[in-house]
DNA sequence: TATTGTTATACTCTATAACTATA
DNA sequence: TATAGTTATAGAGTATAACAATA
């Protein structure tokens, strides 16, 4: 048994979209993590910042539902973002069980930098695709993601 | 702050292919995991079985390289597959550092069942795409995966 | 009774270093 | 010296149950 000429990507799996999604998802996550590490953030922190940036104040349960993060896990993530001065939790007068989470001014700035980094990584990831191909890919993936959410 | 009408998929992130890949990869992994749980297997076990099924005997380092699994992690995975009677490690006469890993007869059967399950999950995942769209998606993802491997 | 935020626990995946035996 | 398999450890993501405060 000598080492065979191994394809970088195993043919046995390259035909499965499921496997490709898992593999590319991990790759994208890794690239992105390296870039945002300098900000002291990990991917879920960034998902939260971008979501708050687009939607304004949200209760924790809404953030959790939107991002598919467990409520229980979200607590520590928000504690960390609070310690960094990027978000604040304020009580909701109308329903005192809920905490309104919103970006601070520093949080708004950081969200903008995160968005810029995301665009850079995106460019590197899709470098070999034409504009039309990238648009087609994005459109199909968005449809699949919506289908997946409906199935929950 | 009343609960806003939350899109299932947050608009702030749905435009990023990177985020969609991560999210869909996790979804695909979850669907697949549920199905193969009945076989006592987890995704990396299946990746190994399918790779051995296609390539025959491989040394552990080759499996690890091909599948992007750490050599150190692979040891336990192969121990588990061995305990299930699905693979065997045999010494390589030409290089006694290397162990040839190959499927047993039961392993061949299980690999076939895993492949069938993978096709089912694939069907569910891509249900809303036309044949042409699915082929286009698969082709683009495969290109991106090869690009990613070259960049390593 | 149900929901929100919280604490605690456990399992998987990932990353790293170090050891042994062989080359 | 370098490589293959192994052991051990720690961080990160995920899933679950249970609790207090509030609706």
Précis, in short:
Two copies of one chain form a homodimer. Chain A is mainly α and 152 residues long.
* SS content category of chain A: mainly alpha
Query: What percent of residues of chain A adopt helix (DSSP H or I)?
Result: 55-70%
Radius of gyration of chain A: 19 Å
Instruction: Provide the low-confidence segments of chain A as ranges.
Output: none
Rounded mean pLDDT score of chain A? 93
From the N-terminal CA to the C-terminal CA of chain A, the straight-line distance is: 46 Å
The largest sheet of chain A has its strands arranged as 1-3-2
Biggest interface in this structure?
A-B, 73 and 73 residues
Q: Describe the main β-sheet of chain A briefly.
A: 3 strands, antiparallel
Tally of strands of chain A: 3
Describe what this molecule looks like in 3D.
The structure is a homodimer of 152-residue chains. With 152 residues, the first copy, chain A, is mainly alpha-helical. Chain A has a single domain (8-125), classed as Arc Repressor Mutant, subunit A (Orthogonal Bundle). Helices cover 65% and strands 8% of the residues of chain A. Chain A has seven helices and three strands; from the N terminus they run αααβααββαα. Chain A has a three-stranded antiparallel β-sheet. In chain A, a hairpin with a 7-residue loop joins strand 2 (87-91) and strand 3. The termini of chain A are far apart. The model of chain A has no long low-confidence stretch (mean pLDDT 93). Chains A and B meet through helix 1, helix 2, helix 3, strand 1 and helix 4 of A and helix 1, helix 2, helix 3, strand 1 and helix 4 of B.
């Amino acid at each position: 048994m000598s080492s065979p000429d191994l394809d970088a990507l195993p043919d046995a799996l390259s035909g499965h979209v499921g496997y490709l999604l898992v593999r590319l998802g991990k790759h994208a996550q890794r690239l992105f993590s390296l870039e945002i590490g300098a900000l002291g953030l990990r991917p879920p922190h960034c998902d939260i910042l971008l979501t708050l940036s687009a939607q304004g104040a949200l209760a924790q349960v809404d953030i959790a539902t939107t991002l598919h993060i467990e409520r229980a896990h979200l607590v520590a993530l928000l504690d960390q973002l609070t310690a960094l001065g990027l978000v604040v939790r304020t009580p909701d007068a109308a329903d005192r069980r809920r905490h309104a989470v919103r970006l601070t001014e520093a949080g708004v700035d950081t969200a903008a930098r995160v968005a810029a980094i995301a665009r850079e990584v995106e460019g590197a990831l899709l470098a070999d695709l034409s504009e039309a191909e990238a648009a087609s890919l994005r459109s199909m993936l968005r449809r699949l993601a919506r289908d997946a959410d409906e199935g929950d």
